[in-house]
C-alpha cells in the first residue's frame, strides 16, 4: 500500500529542483577570501588593462550561471558557491597558448584570461547532469573549428558541451 510513497517523493523532489534551475538568480559575490579561494593569473598585474573586470559564475544545484559568459581579454572569472563542485577547462578545446585550469572540489577559483578565444569547462562530478559552461573572451573567429573538434574528441557526458557551444553567439 505504501509502495507508491517513495517514488512519489522522488518525482516531487525532481520537479522542485527542475523548476528552480530555470530561474535566473542574480550572481552572488563571495566576499570571504577564506582558505578555499584561489587566484590563478596568466599575466602579471602590470600587463592587465586598467578597465579589467571580474565576472562571477555561480554554481547552482547542477548548473553554472551564466552558462555562457562573454568577457574581454584581461578580465577575471570567479566561480562561487563551489561547495560540491569544481571547474576544469577542457584543455583540448581552449586557445593555443592559454593555460588550462583545474579547480579542486569545493574551491572558489579565480582565473584571468588574456588570450582571445573559446574556453569550454565542466564540473567533473556533475557533467552527467550537463553542468558545463563556456567562456568567450573577446571576439574569437574559430567557433566552427572548436565545435568540429569538440564533436570529434568529446566522449560520453562531455558531449553535453556541444549543446552549450551551439548556443554561443560571437560578438560583432
Overview of this structure, please?
- The chain is of the alpha/beta class and 172 residues long.
- It has one domain: Immunoglobulin-like (Sandwich).
- Helix content is 20%, strand content 25%.
- The strands form two sheets. It has a five-stranded mixed β-sheet with strand order 1-7-5-2-3, with no helix packed on it. A four-stranded mixed β-sheet has the order 4-9-8-6, with helices on one face.
- Strand 2 and strand 3 form a beta hairpin.
- Helix 2 packs antiparallel against helix 3.
- It is globular, with a radius of gyration of 18 Å.
- About 24% of the residues have low confidence.
Largest sheet data: 5 strands, mixed
List SSEs in N-to-C order: HEEEEEEEEEHH
Which blocks of ≥5 consecutive residues have pLDDT under 50?
5-46
Q: Please state roughly what percent of the residues sit in beta strands, choosing from under 5%, 5-15%, 15-25%, 25-35%, 35-45% or over 45%.
A: 25-35%
Q: From the structure provided, what is the oligomeric state, counting identical versus distinct chains?
A: single chain
**What is the CATH level 1 assignment?**
Mainly Beta
CATH topology category name: Immunoglobulin-like
Q: Topology, pairings included?
A:
Elements: H1 5-21, E1 37-41, E2 54-59, E3 64-65, E4 68-71, E5 75-80, E6 88-89, E7 108-113, E8 117-122, E9 132-137, H2 143-153, H3 161-167
Parallel strand pairs: 1-7, 2-5, 4-9
Antiparallel strand pairs: 2-3, 5-7, 6-8, 8-9
Helix pairs in contact: 2-3
Question: Which key features would you list for this structure?
Answer:
172 residues, Immunoglobulin-like, alpha/beta, 3 helices
Amino acid at each position: 500500500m505504501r509502495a507508491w510513497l517513495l517514488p512519489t517523493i522522488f518525482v516531487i523532489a525532481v520537479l522542485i529542483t527542475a523548476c528552480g534551475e530555470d530561474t535566473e538568480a542574480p550572481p552572488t559575490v563571495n566576499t570571504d577570501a577564506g582558505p578555499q579561494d584561489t587566484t590563478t593569473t596568466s599575466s602579471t598585474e602590470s600587463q592587465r588593462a586598467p578597465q579589467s573586470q571580474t565576472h562571477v559564475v555561480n554554481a547552482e544545484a547542477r548548473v553554472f550561471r551564466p552558462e555562457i559568459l562573454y568577457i574581454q581579454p584581461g578580465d577575471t572569472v570567479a566561480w562561487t558557491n563551489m561547495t560540491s563542485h569544481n571547474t576544469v577547462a577542457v584543455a583540448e578545446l581552449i586557445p593555443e597558448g592559454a593555460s588550462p585550469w583545474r579547480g579542486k572540489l569545493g574551491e572558489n577559483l579565480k582565473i584571468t584570461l588574456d588570450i582571445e578565444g573559446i574556453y569550454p569547462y565542466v564540473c567533473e562530478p556533475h557533467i552527467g547532469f550537463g553542468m558545463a559552461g563556456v567562456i568567450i573572451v573577446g571576439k574569437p573567429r574559430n567557433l566552427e573549428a572548436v565545435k568540429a573538434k569538440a564533436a570529434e574528441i568529446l566522449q560520453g557526458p562531455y558531449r553535453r558541451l556541444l549543446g552549450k557551444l551551439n548556443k554561443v553567439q560571437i560578438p560583432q
